[in-house]
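Progress note, sequence design subtask.
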């Protein structure tokens, strides 16, 4: 019995099946679920929820915390000063599943593969194709490892006053533009009607199992790097969005679905704005005037005890500050302090944990004012 679907393409999703329709539906053919435990059994456990993993680079901060699983499966990458240009960089957040190997492999290789294919790209179509080639090359390289895990990805390449954002799966990029949240990516999930149709056209199927629509009843995302057992249906071809940096683009949030499952896009933007709001006009600038001679990578980690979540209305906090002092128009002009940017990352992570997120959570915030040409 076919389930009804909403027709709002491409964001339409499958409706939950009723109890009656679930009982009548014919069972799908039995498939073998791969054993991924061999991949991770020899690895040491990651620090549990009592510690953050934090790192930073010019104009960017990231915080992450492990979820309920024994191993941290999220990873990230920050590569600043591409080709010696301090106003360029590559940033990625990677959410692994079925083990941590895929996310780690992507963090080590995706940026190099993308930069290798971006040489001599001039127009948007060639850049989009270069991103696609870089993702597919990374996927093929990982499949050759013979491992079964997979990874969702969201990346941002900032170079030449352009920002190229790409994604696979349910990692998401959200831009703050004039104080308003703008999602730059659309999650690739099995519940999306266009993704379900693509999978079925290739002979696969989508089944509702354990509270979510899943490819062959296993994987809730419909695109990823890795997942060799589902590769015929789970693609590694990203969606790419190319934007020219403008003065009203304030910051970009890249995060794994451990955040987005419990925090709305606009709420995340409001929290960052409140945390990074300058206390006065003469406050310190973040990474102002930095000089770079070569590419720099920032994989550093620090274990920091989580701060207690301050249960206040952040929207009210923003309103109170902007009404009580003439700061509002300076928010876009003055970059946040280092402490403000790092604090915003941890604020978002803490909020997700307090709302019951059991997944690994990684939040990266990029201050776009550090990458725009000065007017």
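Output:
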């Amino acid at each position: 019995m076919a389930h009804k679907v909403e027709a709002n393409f491409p964001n339409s999703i499958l409706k939950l099946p009723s109890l009656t329709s679930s009982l009548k539906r014919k069972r799908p053919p039995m498939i073998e679920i791969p054993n991924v435990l061999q991949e991770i059994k020899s690895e040491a456990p990651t620090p549990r929820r009592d510690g953050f993993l934090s790192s930073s680079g010019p104009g960017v901060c990231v915080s992450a915390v492990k979820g309920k699983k024994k191993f941290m499966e999220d990873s990230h990458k920050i590569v600043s000063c591409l080709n010696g240009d301090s106003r360029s960089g590559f940033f990625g957040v990677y959410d692994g599943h079925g083990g941590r190997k895929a996310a780690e492999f992507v963090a080590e290789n995706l940026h190099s593969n993308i930069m290798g294919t971006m040489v001599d790209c001039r127009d948007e179509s060639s850049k989009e194709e270069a991103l696609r080639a870089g993702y597919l090359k990374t996927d093929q390289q990982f499949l050759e490892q013979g491992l079964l895990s997979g990874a969702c990805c969201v990346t941002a390449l900032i170079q030449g006053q352009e920002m190229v954002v790409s994604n696979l799966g349910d990692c998401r990029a959200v831009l703050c533009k004039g104080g308003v949240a703008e999602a730059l990516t659309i999650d690739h999930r099995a519940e999306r009607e266009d993704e379900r149709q693509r999978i079925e056209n290739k002979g696969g199927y989508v089944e509702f199992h354990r509270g979510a629509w899943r490819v062959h009843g296993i994987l809730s995302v419909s695109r990823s790097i890795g997942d060799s057992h589902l590769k015929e249906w789970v693609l590694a071809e990203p969606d790419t969005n190319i934007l020219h940096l403008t003065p009203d683009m304030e910051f970009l949030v890249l995060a794994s679905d451990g955040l987005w499952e419990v925090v709305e896009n606009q709420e995340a933007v409001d929290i960052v704005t409140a945390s990074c709001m300058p206390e006065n006009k003469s406050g310190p600038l973040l990474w102002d005037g930095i000089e770079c001679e070569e590419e720099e990578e920032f994989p550093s980690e620090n274990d920091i005890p989580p701060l207690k979540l301050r249960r206040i209305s952040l929207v009210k906090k923003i309103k109170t500050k902007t009404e009580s002092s003439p700061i509002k128009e300076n928010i876009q002009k003055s970059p946040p302090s280092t402490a403000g940017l790092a604090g915003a990352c941890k604020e978002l992570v803490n909020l997700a944990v307090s709302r019951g997120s059991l997944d690994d959570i990684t939040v990266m915030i990029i201050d776009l004012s550090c990458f725009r040409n000065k007017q």
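The chain has a mean pLDDT of 79. Work on this subtask will continue into the next period as scheduled.
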